[in-house]
Amino acid sequence: MPGWAPEPAAGDPAVWHIRGRTVDLGRPVVVGVLNVTPDSFSDGGVYLEPAAAEERALSLAAEGADLIDIGAESTRPGAPAVPADEEWDRLAPVLERLRRSLAVPLSVDTTKAIVAERALELGAAVINDVSGLEVEPRIGRLAAESGAGLVLMHRRGDPRTMQRDVEYADLIAEVRASLERSIDAAVSAGCSRKQLVVDPGIGFGKSPEGSLRLLAEVGKFGSLDVPIMVGPSRKSFIGMLLDLPVHERLEATIGACVVALERGARLFRVHDVGPARRALDLAEAIRRAGAAEDAPAGAPR
Ligand code: HH2
What we know:
- 39% of the residues lie in helices and 14% in strands.
- The protein is an alpha/beta fold.
- Strands 8-7-6-5-4-3-10-9 form an 8-stranded parallel beta sheet. It has a two-stranded antiparallel ribbon with strand order 1-2.
- 6-hydroxymethylpterin-diphosphate (HH2) binds at residues 33, 35, 37, 40-42, 71, 74-76, 109, 128, 130, 151, 153, 199, 201-202, 229, 231, 269.
């Protein structure tokens, strides 16, 4: 089977360690996106008010999210940089509310160590660093000290520059080598591999064809030996390929997630949690039915 595969049920259970809690990797992990920004590419301005953000988080949890990833700085191409204080002012009231009302663990999507540090103080269980520790390596130490989960994503450049150069001599090899450097940096900072997840960064310094290839060949990152996340949700490669506006990309997002699951991805960062949950659970059941059929006679089913 290509890609990262959960350990067999008889052995150590396949889990992602996130600060004293574990996320079961035995089934697809659905990560709900919540952006508390004025300018995110698909939900900018909608959840800027803390009450609206809280309501959205609770509904993502009710739809079956295993984790909710909150971002307070857009990473869309061309997005302006947000100062740390402003990013924190957007996040803090939402984290304060959710720590009381939400049972599902929270991830914070940031590249700033000071924001990660404060978010951990308010109970965040995961840091999602879209720079893979390139911008502020101190995030690695913060994850090590707190035991938080750490998502290491690949991107080239930053939101201002990332779509200027989307050509690679060997896309898969370059992304893989960069993710390996991020893993090494996290481990050198004291993280256990069981805290880590990698993400090839769909749309981050990638052409539409590049994003398709990363999804098609996501299994090639399996040898990094940490679970793989993908985030194709509503992204522009779908819009360009199918000529669809941002709010008509649901079915294509689901299709991309299902193919990526089949090829070895285990975690799926999506805006539309309920549909993704149902599609991925069914796809996983089909995958397992096939695996059971292929198993040698007498093997447990
Ligand atoms: N994509 C976005 C943001 N963070 N993190 C990971 N690990 N993987 C991704 O693919 C990823 C990410 C962009 O999506 P969104 O948060 O909806 O938009 P914006 O950055 O405009 O807020």
